[in-house]
Amino acid sequence: METKISRQPFTQLTLGFVLVLALLAAIVGMAIFGLDRLMQGMDRISTENNVHSHLAVEMLQASRERGVLLGKIVLEEDPFARDEIIQNFTGLGRQFGAARTRLLASPDLIEVERALLEEQRQLAAQVQPLQMQVIELAVAERNAEAAKLLLGDVLPIQERMIVTLRQFTAFQENEVAEIVRQAQQANERGNLLLLASGALAMLAGAAIAVFVSRRMRGLVAAIERRERESRTLLENIPDLVWFKDRDARFKWANPAFTQAAGIAPDRLGGLRDEDIWLAGEAVQCQSDEQRAIASGQTVQVEKTFTIHGQARRFDTSRTPVYGEQGLCAGVLCVAHDITEQRRMEQQVKTALRELEFQKYALDQHAIVSIADVSGRITYVNDKFCAVSGYGRDELIGQNHRLLKSGAHPDDFFTDMWGAIVSGRVWHGEVCNRKKNGASYWVDTSIVPFMDEQGLPYQYISIRTEITGLKYIEQVLKKTNEALHVEALEKSAEAREREELVVAISTAAHDAVVVIDDAGKVVYWNQAAEKLFGYGAAEALSQDLHRLVMPDGHAEQQAAGFARFIESGEGALIGRATEVSARRKDGAEFDLELSLSALKMKGRWHGVGIGRDVTARKQEQQSLQRRNEELLVLNDKLKEAQNQLLQSEKMASVGQLAAGVAHEINNPIGYVYSNLGTLQNYVQDIFKVVSAYEGAEPAIADDELLSQVRKAKAQADLNFLREDVLSLMHESREGITRVKKIVQDLKDFSHVDTSDEWHWTDLHAGLDTTLNIVWNELKYKAEVKKEYGDIPEVECLPSQLNQVFLNMLVNAGHAIEERGAITLRTGRAGDEVWVEIADTGKGIAPEHLQRIFEPFFTTKPIGKGTGLGLSLSYGIVQKHGGRIEVQSEPGKGTAFKIWLPVKQREPAEAAAVDG
User: Which of 597, 590, 530, 592 is nearest to 565 (CA)?
Assistant: First the structure.
C-alpha cells in the first residue's frame, strides 16, 4: 500500500511564510516609504533653509556695505572717486533687491519669516529716499547737511534693517538645528522598526536591511551634508557666533570668535566668560544671557570687548535656544563689530564740526554769496550785507547787477560769464557799488557747480574787500613814477660824480691806489708817486704788498688778500687803519690807509687811499676826539630835529582838531539852545491842548465832539505827549555828548595855551587822551582807572598829552587779542607818578635797554618809526622827570612816569644837573 504525503502543511507553511513575508514586506515597505518621504521632506526643508539663509546673509552683507559706502560718499572730496563709490552703492542695491526678490518668491516661507521680511521692506521704504537725499547733498558739496542726515536719520534705520536680517538668519539657524534633531529621531525610530522586522524574517530582513541601510546612509549623509553647509555658512560669517549651554559654558563657536578670543577651537569647550574676556566684560555677558533666558526673547546690547589687547565695539544679540519638552538648552550669541562704523560716525561728526569752523572762519574774513544760473542771489553772509550796506531781504532774489558800479566795460562781464558758464573758476578784481552809492573794490573768485550733464546750476562767489589796497596801488604807482624820474636824475648825477672823482683823485694830496684780484697795481695817482717814491710806470703791474710793505708784513697782508678776492670782505675793508709802509728808499713810515672793495667785471678790486701821518699822529688823535664829540652832538641834533618835527606835527594836528572843534561848536551851540527853546514851546503847546481837553465836556455839538475825539485818537495824543518830551531829552543828551567830544579835542590840542608852562590836572589830561584813542583801544582792551590823590602839576599839557598818547597806543599794540590797560596815579614827596600798564606780550630783556633810542623799534616794517618812546623820553626829561619800565615777556609791561609837582628855577635845575 502506497502512502502519500500531504502537501497541505507545506502549502500552509508556504502560505504562512508568504503571508509573513508579505506582512514583513508591507511593514518594511511602509517603513521604507515613510523614511523616503521623511528624507525627501528633510532634504527639501534643509535645502530651502540653506537657500533662505544664504539669501538673507547676502542681503545682510549688502546692507552693511551700503552703509559703509554711504559714509565714504559723504567724506570723499574727490568727485570722480565719489562717483565710483556711488556706482558701487547702486550695484549693491541691485544685489540686495535681487536676493530679496528670490527670497520672497519661495513658496515655503512661514509666517514669522514673511513678517520679518515685511518689517525689512517697510524699513527699506523709509531709508531709500533718505539715502538718495544724502547722495544728492554730498554731490552738491553740502557735506555738513549730508553728514547730519546720515547720522541722524539714515544710519539708525539701516541698523534696524540689519537687526531684522540678523533675526532672520538666527531663525534659519534654529530651524536647521531643529531639522537635524528631527532627522536623528526619525533615524532612531527607523532602525528600531527594521530590527523588529529582521527578528521575524532574517532572510527577507537581510535583503530589506541592506536596501534600507543604504537609503538611510544616503539620508544621514544628506543631512550631514546639509549640516556641514550650514556650519560652513556660520564659519564664514565675519560676525562672532558662539553657543553656550544653560550653565554659561561654551559649547561651540565659529572661527571668527576663536580667532578674536585667541583660543584654539579644541580648547573652547567647557570654558566660561571669565576665561576669555576681562572681568567686567564677563560679568556683563553673563547678565545679558540671564536676561535672555529669563525673558525668552533676544537681548540686543552694544558692548565693548578687548580683542588682542585692543578695545573694540560690538553690537551683540543673545537668543535663547529651546530643546525637547520646551526646556532652554542654551544661548546662541552673535556679535557684530561696529568699531569702524563708530569711528566713521565720529569722523563724520568731526568733519561736520570742522566744516562749521571753516564756514565761520570764512564768514569772518570773506564776502560770500551764492547765485543761480541766471545770476539771482540765493544766499549772502553777514559780511556781504555789512560791506554792501544792503539787508539780506534786499539782496535775496535780486540779480548781482544791483551792485554794478559802471567802472568796468561790458566786455569785462562777458568774459567773466563765458568762463563760469563753461565750468572754469574765474578770478578778478571787481568794483561794486554800495547801497549809499559809494564804490568799493573786491578781489573775487567765482566757482561754478556743475550737474550730471556738465551744466552749471549755481555759482558761489568768495570776495575780499581790497578798497584800501587799490588806493595804496594808486599811491605806489605815483610814487614809482616819481622814483623813476628821481633815478634818472641820480644816474646823471652819478656820471658827473664819477668824472669828479677822477679829477679829484688826480689832484688829491692823498695817495690813491687800485689793485686787481691778483694784487697787481692798476691805478697809481700823482700823490702816490710822491708818497712812496715810485713813478706810475714803475708801480703799475707790480705786486703792491711786496712793493710798499716792510719785510715781514707782506706775507701777512697777502694771506688776508686771499680772503678778499673770494668774497670782497676783509678785516680792513670799509674802515680806516694805520699800517707801516716803506718808501722806495727803504724808509718806513706810518700810513693812514682806507680800503674799500670794488667789483668790476665780476672780479673784486681793492681801492686804497693813504696818507703819511707820522708827523700828525698827535694832531689826529686830538681831531679824532673832537670828531667823536661832533658825532655825538650831531646825533643829539638829529634827535632834537626829529622831536621838533614831531612836535610841529602834533601842533598842526592840534590846530586842525581845535579848528574842527571850533567849527562844530558853533552849530552845536545854537542847536542846543534851540532844543531848549523848542522844549519850552512844546510844553506850552501841551498846556493849551490840556486846556482844550478840559473844555471838551462843554461842546454841545455831538458831531463836532466826535470829530475832536477822532482827531485825538488818530494822532494818539497821549503817546505824543510822552514821546515828544522823551525825544527832546534824548536829543539834548546827544548834543551834550558831542559837545563833550569837541571839548576833549580842544583840551587835547591845548591850542589856547601856546607852549607855556601851566598848572594842570593830569587826570583830566589822561581822560581827554583816552577819549581820543578810545576807538583804537575799545575792541582790544578793557581800560581800568586807579587814580590816586595828586595835586595839579606845572607842565606843558599838550606835550604830556602826547606822552600819554604814545604810551596808550603802544599798550594797545602790545595786546594781540584781548587784554587790559590800567591807569594808575600817585604822589611821593614832591613828585607825582603816572603808570600805564598793559597785559600784552611784553618786551624782551635784550630790548629793554634800547627802547628809548631814536628809530629803535621791534614792530614790523611800516608799523612804527621808533620815535614815539624817544620823544616821550625827551619830553619827560624836559619836565625834569624820568620814566621807569618793568616788563615780563608774555605777561605785560608797565611804564611809570615821574614828574616834579613844581618846575625848578633855571639856576636850581642847572645846579642839580651839574
Answer: 597
Residues 608, 614, 616, 622, CA torsion sign: positive
Query: Given this model, what pLDDT does residue 855 score?
Result: 58
Element (H, E) at 600: strand 588-600
- C-alpha dist (Å) from residue 149 to 92, 126, 141, 356: 21, 13, 14, 15
- How far apart CA 907 and CA 914 sit, in angstroms, is 10
- pLDDT greater than 80 at residue 701: no
Round to whole Å and give the CA distance between 350 and 498: 70
Q: How far apart are CA 240 and CA 225, in angstroms?
A: 23
**Residue 144 vs residue 16, higher pLDDT:** 144
SS3 assignment, position 554: helix
How many CA atoms within 13 Å lie on the side-chain side of 190?
29
pLDDT digits 0-9 by tens, 837-851 = 999 888 888 877 777
Query: Distance between CA 685 and CA 691 in Å, rounded?
Result: 10
Q: Which long-range contacts (CB under 8 A, 24 or more apart) does 552-558 make?
A: 553/579, 553/580, 558/519
Q: Is 429 helix (H, G, I), strand (E, B) or coil?
A: strand
Among 160-174, 449-463, 679-693, 703-717, the range of highest mean pLDDT = 449-463
Confidence (pLDDT) at 790: 92
The per-residue pLDDT for 740 is 63
Residue of 217 and 835 predicted with greater confidence: 835
Percent of the chain topping pLDDT 90 = 8
Question: Rounded to a whole number, what is the distance in angstroms from the first to the last CA of the chain?
Answer: 190
pLDDT tens-digit profile of 542-569? 887 788 888 766 566 666 677 777 776 7
DSSP codes, 130-175: HHHHHHHHHHTT-HHHHHHHIIIIIHHHHHHHHHHHHHHHHHHHHH
C-alpha cell at 106: 519661495
Angstrom distance (rounded) from CA 712 to CA 704: 12
Rounded to whole angstroms, how far apart are CA atoms 310 and 23? 70
Q: Is residue 372 helix, strand or coil?
A: strand
Q: Which three cell numbers stand for residue 292?
A: 535672555
Alpha helices in 508-604 (DSSP H): 526-532, 536-539, 544-548, 554-567
Which residue, among 153, 171, 141, has the nearest Cα to 57 in the 3D structure? 171
The angle at the Cα of 704, spanning 703 to 706, to the nearest 5 degrees, equals 65
pLDDT value of position 789 = 92
